[in-house]
Amino acid sequence: MSSLTAAERVAAARHPQRPGVTDYIGALFTDFFEQKGDRLCREDPAVLGGIALYHGRPVTVIGTRKGKTAEESLRCNFGMPGPEGYRKALRLMKQAEKFRRPVITLIDTSGAYPGLEAEARGQGEAIARNLMEMSRLTVPVVAVITGEGNSGGALALAVANRVLMLENAVYAVLSPEGFASILWRDASRHEEACGLMKLTAPDLLALGVADDVVPEPEGGAHRAPEQTFRELDRAISRHLAALLRESGPALAAGRRQKFRKIGAGEEA
Amino acid sequence: MNGIFAKRRARLLAMKAIRDNYIPGDKRIACPRCGGESSRRDVTGNLSVCPLCGYHFPMGAYYRLSTILDPGSFRELNEKLPAADPLSFPGYREKQRAAQRKTGLTEAAVTATGTVGGRRCVAGVLDSRFLCGSMSAAVGEKITLAIEYAAKNKLPLILFSASGGARMQEGILSLMQMAKTSAALARFSEKGLLYISVLTDPTTGGVTASFASLGDIILAEPGALIGFAGPRVIQQTIGETLPEGFQRSEYQEEHGFVDAVVPRGELRETLSRLLRLHEKGGRP
Question: Cβ distance A165 to B154 under 8 Å?
Fold first, then answer.
């Protein structure tokens, strides 16, 4: 693995040519059928989800979508979901449980959208509901942080049995800019924040938040996407195979215990 | 009540509540909403509600519990659970110590068992005076232990939220507390037990996006700021001024996220009534 600084990894995670959710779905899955809408009020293109075949097995795949072109980015709000996106994701996950399909989530978001309408429709409630409901799903859930995973907006798709991170992906309570702004009232100190936040894949593996790190090609995932897809495919297959041997209740219990242990006071 | 111990517990909580309200010097206090000055005694004697305009001042955790639990019923849970510095974040230990000195608390959450109107329950309170009531690993752990205690003993649960959101200095571990507490509530709920969430000023960020929003019943004190993103961030993002009353309790009630806005003076009676309504068959 390369030895980039935390700030360099943040830059790599945000690289404009970095593969996005549609690339991963295209490369790792077949026969993808997109499902739209939260069945309550609207469709949120910042979350892409549907049914697909993964090595011949039906799965539900859900990811955040940043968009490739300016037009597409605008349409999917630069990958910042509103409550409708999280509610759609939950709808698809509950459906996956009904049809006994594993759930695979692909996360790359700077966070949940901090907007007026998002608040009016219960951004906080939508995220909270996902955390609670995901914790008790009786099908395997594998989450992959592919780029940025910021705040509750990322966690709302990441209450998984296995949390995988691409080597240069970052996972944090907040963007380094937001972090510096809250802590020091100075967003320009974001590089300093990167160094302190413990947001890189190796950091999170050490903290027990991530379960596995997927190697990226030299220079980042976008330099050799095919290689990235192969490595990711290998990791997902391996973890999914192990989870598919577990019973439904064991999957829910294992997932709950995984999160139960975090911050349970081994340090005094 | 069993005599001397109950009396001792009542005195202990009363003393801690007095400590919550003790601020050296100023005998008078200005209301941030109406600007009117009142004597501190008039305010604390009125549940920390402004006698002039009804503004709800922030409340210390022990003081809150002393106004909700029946006298002598208070028993603190996991009082000794220590504050942690899991990321060895520069300057964090000093911040914690300063907050501890200021509040007399070890962390931003206090959890206890007690009775409300004679009915046993588990109650947890976040204290916004301690680093904005932000969610640290210790706060998440304390809340989770309280939920698990309630589940194990088949008791209803009441959580009072007051939080600026995540504890920055604990980074991702703060974020993970959202999943931990929500998962504990899922288990709790599966046992058919009642959870009442009481939102107080301010309830934002990761606390809103986890246990605060998951109550079977959600109450809010009047005028409390309740939301996921803070108003400053939203304003910066959308570049417009926010409408009057945005994200306040009454707004959340109107938008369907709060069962009832309950003034502090009626909270104890409301909670007592809700506990009664959830007894077997709804009978007292």
Answer: no
Neighbouring residues of B140: CB distance < 8 A, sequence distance ≥ 6: A263, B174, B176, B177, B178, B180, B181
Which residues in chain B are closer than 8 Å to A123, comparing Cβ atoms? Answer: 209, 227-229
Q: How many residues are given for chain B?
A: 284
Is B228 in Cβ contact with A118 (below 8 Å)?
yes
pLDDT per residue, tens digit, chain A (268 aa), is 568 999 999 999 999 999 999 999 999 999 999 999 999 999 999 999 999 999 999 999 999 999 999 999 999 999 999 999 999 999 999 999 999 999 999 999 999 999 999 999 999 999 999 999 999 999 999 999 999 999 999 999 999 999 999 999 999 999 999 999 999 999 999 999 999 999 999 999 999 999 999 999 999 999 999 999 999 999 999 999 999 999 999 999 999 999 999 988 654 3
Contact of B73 with chain A, judged by CB distance below 8 Å, is answered with no
Q: Is B79 at the interface with chain A, CB within 8 A?
A: no
**What are the CA-CA distances from residue B106 to residues A67, A85, B133, B166, B283 (Å)?**
46, 38, 12, 17, 40
Domains, in order of start, for chain B? 58-282 (3.90.226.10)
State pTM to two decimals. 0.96
Alpha-carbon distance B250 to nearest alpha carbon in chain A (angstroms): 12
For residue B145, give how far its alpha carbon lies from the nearest alpha carbon of chain A (Å).
Answer: 10
User: Do the Cβ atoms of B166 and A127 come within 8 Å?
Assistant: no
| Residue from the list B178, B230, B247 with its beta carbon closest to the beta carbon of A155 | B178
State ipTM. 0.97
Domains and CATH numbers, chain A: 6-259 (3.90.226.10)
